[in-house]
Design goal:
single chain; alpha/beta; Rossmann fold; ten-stranded mixed beta sheet; six-stranded parallel beta sheet; 19% strand; globular
């Protein structure tokens, strides 16, 4: 057979338009409408066919077209404007430079298993990746000294195809990295920069790729290189590989390899932010590196690492947290233990629920929690769920004091708004909505937008969504081998003037996509109302191993194929960022029906708001904080019933009632000018209340003020003078732990009685034998508050003061103010004093006063009389 050697001929960019390549290689263009318009202008059809990838576009466009553009004055003027904007963006002073001018010693590394930046870089599966992508973009806008670290997947996430029966099929295709907006990091001689990670008895090597996201570099590791054997080349083939051992290697590469890549590039971080537990092994690598660099023991190095790590958990379901069998983890981590000269169980114990329990698996979330100081959930409600979920790690700490806070997610507004809305905002709000999106005063200017203009924009966006839905539906029917009648029908589905509701997300059972169809007769009456019809657009993928999720998609497809629903319900397959952007820009309502409290946050509903869409959601995740009665609708009242069927019945009934009695009539209620003025008023209320709060700039600023800067200060404090303080604190903590068992409450007294009135003070005296510890080693606190029927205090703490000492026995006094009436209780506890920084050590060791079995350490007081 004849041998054929393939090669490629790319077009040559004329010198005058060569800056197009500079723009294409910085993902800044993806959230700049003028840059997107520039690429679209080159060849609109090719731009769409290339999935909006400018590198692919520039490699496929005809040479004649490029030569024409190089002499076209209007195009060149457009190019110059975009280049000027990019250069100005990259050099302009930023929020962070004004907040903290000295950035020379600051570097934050943000680790994530996936990044959803743009559809041209398909290395994301869902919300976690999109959130990570938005975080990088806002970090760029704010000028944070941040770098991103992730993995480069040869197959990315799967493409979804639905067969004739509506069952999801997964298609994996290789991605050609040469056509993506990124570059291999090379050594001075031109060869690729490689790092290696020890895995069992061999070294796995990885190539480093760089993606520029505005001001932020993102480094991605790739093991699919000739230096590795086939098994190890597979490590970065598929996102979230189902093989447990491959998954462990992925997470070692992300955490250990990612940190080594930064060190190799002279970008060693002072703070590490772990976006979920996948990268938790980075903490072990940081400890090992510090031990070598500063001759520290394990405990001292652990102190320095822990106080400069930030961990964000996204998963309120136990099954969603990665856990590895002890023997498997030990095999792979043994080289690390040897390097640090410690037993392997010392590493495994960091990720075990019960340290010292042989055979217990290693949890990546527990590892991340134990080796970080700052922990947070991604909404207020999720913070509460996470504190309850991981309370067992701090068993003596009241649940409300478990050191897991929350920073509610946001979205990067410029990445999600439609260009039509951008022009509208620029005209009436001014550029501040982009430059300072957290300013509530800026968003109040939404009220100045004329209702007619706002509604025309909404109608254009809905029309665009319908047109794209018809095209996508036709394409997917062609894939299934549909015939002409079905293809003609696809061109007539949906109506640009009808109330359009969107539902798009990962199809997991807890998201309850079928809640809408619980009563099909009633649902039919709602959508088939000839005077006030409704239509629905669905999209989303089920995890390849989630058979129930696939069945939900299949059932929706079957419902959509019924003759009475065919024009009113569409399911768009292969959901990605491109489809998501079109949907959030075009729908009138975003529907969200999860089982509370299993939606950690959610961000899709935030994206519709900036485009004039409204939310209709269960009170879960972010919507608990955003809903105010005037900016959308809540399904139910947030109650949770143990009987799930009953819960579904109640909430589906509430959903139907809202649609029939409130939402649909409001949308179709028109004035003499044919404008739905009450609906438009709700759109404005939604924008004014949600946009300034639920955007990623606010979240990134919050991370910076609450976690990044304190972590930087912690690191600087501990790292000074050759880690002297880290060594001292490690020794002090070791001493405190060894002597803690000697603490014993001798007596607790009060002379105030138990029947008090508002305005009184309850005085307390505690006598404690601290054994070998001094009064300066500990703090005594009164923990008090209103008491529930189960003798659980929902309370706060008040520091007691040292009144006297006699040998190892110390007297403390404290006071509880009686500010309000009700049933109250208190207890007293001893905790270690703060080590001089925010390291949560005081939550690790707590001894409570235990008066007797009858009171279980809680003395109840009735302060039930009013002030009068």
């Amino acid at each position: 057979m004849r041998t054929i050697q393939k090669f490629r001929i790319r077009p040559t960019l004329p010198e005058r338009i060569r800056p197009l390549l500079d723009i294409a290689k910085n993902l800044w263009w993806s959230w700049n409408p003028e840059a997107i318009s520039l690429f679209r202008r080159i060849d609109p059809e090719l731009w769409r066919a290339c999935q909006h990838n400018p590198i692919t576009l520039l490699s496929k466009v005809k040479q004649e077209r490029l030569d024409t553009l190089a002499s076209k004055e209007t195009f060149l003027a457009h190019l110059d404007r975009v280049i000027d904007r990019l250069e100005d963006y990259m050099s302009h002073p930023t929020w962070y430079s004004e907040l903290k001018p000295d950035q020379s010693n600051s570097r934050i590394a943000y680790f994530s298993a996936e990044f959803g930046i743009h559809e041209s870089l398909p290395f994301y599966a869902g919300g976690l990746g999109v959130l990570a992508g938005d975080h990088l973009k806002s970090a760029s806008d704010l000028g944070l000294p941040l770098v991103g670290v992730g993995l480069l997947y040869r197959q990315g996430y799967f493409h979804q195809r639905l067969d004739q029966d509506g069952m999801q099929q997964e298609i994996y295709s290789e991605i050609h990295f040469s056509g993506l907006p990124m570059n291999v990091v090379r050594r001075p001689g031109g060869s690729p920069e490689l790092i290696s990670v020890e895995m069992e008895n061999r070294k796995v090597q990885a190539r480093i790729w760089r993606v520029q996201v505005g001001r932020i570099p993102l480094f991605l590791l790739d093991t699919d290189i000739s230096e590795n054997d086939p098994t190890d080349r597979r490590i970065t083939h598929a996102l979230y590989d189902a093989d447990l051992e491959i998954r462990l290697r992925q997470e070692m590469l992300l955490g250990i390899g990612g940190l080594r890549a930064l060190e190799r590039l002279d970008l060693s971080p002072t703070v590490c932010h772990l976006n979920e537990g996948h990268s938790a092994f980075l903490s072990i690598e940081r400890i090992a590196s510090l031990m070598e660099a500063h001759q520290l023991d394990f405990s001292a190095a652990r102190e320095a690492v822990t106080v400069s790590n930030v961990f964000t958990t996204h998963t309120p379901v136990a099954a969603g947290h990665d856990v590895f069998p002890a023997d498997l983890a030990a095999r792979y981590l043994e080289p690390m233990a040897t390097r640090m000269d410690i037993p392997i169980d010392k590493i495994l114990d960091l990720g075990r629920q019960t340290p010292g329990k042989q055979g217990e698996p290693l949890s990546m979330t527990i590892l991340a929690l134990r080796l970080s100081t700052f922990h947070n959930g991604v909404s207020k409600l999720h913070g509460e769920v996470a504190r309850s979920m991981w309370h067992h790690l701090w068993p003596e700490t009241p649940c409300d004091e478990v050191p897991i806070g929350h920073i509610t997610n946001g979205v990067h507004l410029p990445s999600w708004h439609a260009e039509e809305n951008s022009l509208l905002f620029d005209r009436y709000i001014g550029p501040d909505w982009r430059d300072n999106p957290v300013d509530t005063e800026v968003w109040k200017r939404v009220n100045t937008i004329p209702p007619a203009e706002m509604w025309r924009t909404r109608e254009r966006l809905r029309t665009t969504l319908i047109a794209k839905s018809r095209r996508l539906l036709s394409e997917q029917l062609l894939h299934r081998g549909a015939h002409s009648p079905a293809l003609r029908a696809a061109k007539e589905v949906l109506d640009p003037e009808v109330l359009t509701i969107g539902f798009a997300r990962r199809f997991a059972t807890y998201k309850r996509a079928l809640l809408l169809f619980r009563d099909l007769d009633r649902f039919t009456r709602i959508i088939k109302n000839s005077q006030q019809p409704v239509q629905f657009i669905f999209a989303g993928k089920a995890h390849p191993k989630d058979q129930p999720g696939k069945e939900i998609i299949r059932e929706i497809i079957h419902i959509a194929q019924r003759p009475e629903f065919r024009r009113h319900i569409v399911f768009l397959e292969d959901y990605d960022l491109n489809i998501a952007r079109t949907m959030v820009q075009g729908v009138d309502i975003w529907l969200n029906t999860p089982k509370r409290p299993l939606e950690a946050s959610g961000t899709s509903g935030m994206k519709v708001v900036v485009n004039g869409g409204l939310n209709l959601s269960i009170l879960d995740g972010w919507w608990c904080e955003a809903y105010n009665g005037w900016n959308g609708w809540a399904i139910g009242n947030g109650d949770v019933n143990d009987d799930q069927d009953y819960q579904d019945c109640v909430e589906s009934e509430a959903l139907y009632n809202l649609l029939e009695e409130v939402i649909v009539p409001l949308f179709y209620k028109r004035g003499p000018d044919n404008l739905p003025r009450d609906w438009i008023e709700m759109i404005k209320n939604s924008m004014m209340s949600i946009c300034p709060q639920f955007n990623m700039n606010r979240a990134a600023e919050q991370y910076t003020r609450q976690y990044y800067i304190p972590s930087l200060l912690n690191w600087e404090w501990l790292a000074s003078d050759e880690m002297k303080r880290a060594k001292e604190i490690a020794r002090w903590k070791s001493y405190i732990r060894s002597k803690w068992h000697e603490i014993n409450f001798l007596d607790v007294k009060t002379n105030s009685g138990i029947d008090l009135t508002v305005g009184d003070r309850l005085t307390l005296n505690a006598s404690v034998d601290l054994g070998s510890l001094s009064a300066q080693d500990v703090k005594l606190e009164v923990y008090y508050g209103q008491i529930e029927e189960s003798d659980v205090i929902e309370g706060q703490s008040s520091l007691m003061t040292l009144a006297g000492s006699n040998g190892s026995v110390h007297e403390f006094t404290g006071m509880i103010p009686c500010r309000t009436s009700g049933h109250f209780g208190y207890s007293i506890r001893v905790a270690p004093r703060s080590a001089g920084l925010d390291d949560r050590f005081e939550k690790e060791l707590i001894t409570w006063w235990n008066a007797d079995a009858r009171t279980s350490g809680v003395l109840e007081h009735e302060a039930i009389r009013s002030a009068s």
